[in-house]
Design a protein that fits this description.
The protein is 14% helix and 53% strand. It is built from two helices and 29 strands. The chain is mainly β. The longest helix is centred in the N-terminal third of the chain and has 29 residues.
Amino acid sequence: MLNQTKLFSLFGAFFLTFICSFSLSASTSDSVLLYTPYTKISVSPGQSVEYSIDVINNSHHLFDGEIRLSGIPRSWNYSLKSGPYNINRIAVLPNDRKSLTLNVEVPYQVNKGIYAFRISVGNSLLNLRINVTEKGSSETEFTTDQANRQGNASSTFSFRATLKNRTAEKQMYALLADVTRGWTISFKSDYNQVTSVELDANTTKDITIDIKAPEEVEAGTYKIPVRALTSSTSADLQLEVVITGTYQMTLTTPTGLLSAKVNAGGEKKIQLVVKNTGSSELNDVQMKSENPSNWEVTFQPSSIAKLSPGKEATVYAIIKADKKAIPGDYVVNMEAKTPETSSSISFRIMVQTPIVWGLIGTLIILAAIGGVVYLFRKYGRR
């Protein structure tokens, strides 16, 4: 009977000690807090997030417990350290705190969205979230906000593009473009003209692309493929240039000679050449002139209905001089004109004395000389 009493007494003491110990442990666990100031952080693919987490023991007893981390995607890498050491368990003195560093690496290849995970110590739970702001990849991206530009053939078409290295390594990109003969293209980075650029892993660089068309390019839409290329990765960018066309023409003669001779009251037929030197079609080309007083100029034909780029047309100018024009130089200004453009020349006309008047003058002079001789002979002997 006495032995049974002792046995029950020992069991009761053990049970009471266990209950007290359990209550103390539970009380201590409930008094542990986890704290970090930033529980939701936004990042891009390939970046790392570093959390500074405090483990706070508000109890009057030592806390020693396991650190549990759950919810992080399997493809993500992370580390949990206190100082230089990787840890999974921590002890905190009464009314004290310890700092932990949680580093989470977001991979390059990840979907856009919010990723939630948890860290717990004792009965304390801390919910953390990482907001991945865009869909990632393990490749290169070459993009532009505006892939289309419009202008005439003399314009410089400038595009601003962004090159993104989404790989895990530094890359040296060659910048290339597929253009036909006559087109010119240049790449600029940081205001310097370049043919290649170097990007660290998960970085971007702004690239300016300037394109010039040939002088006599026809109006239309042109595709310009551009590529950023390395030995292991590449990205393509399709640009578009819309040529609205230029309006230009020249007016001249077949030989380039801009002078002629004519008698007073006479006519001169001058051959002119009108050429479309622009890239747009010319319509309703009108021929006009500015003449000296009492002169007449007519054109055959007086207008050209249509003139395609690079083509030329022949026009004849019939110039009629004033009957009373005295010998000398006169200028006739002639112009080919459309609402969009025009071209003009100054044509010099030299008025000369007619041959018949020269003969008459010669005869008069000879007659005068003959009369003097006759009078001398007749009356000179006296």
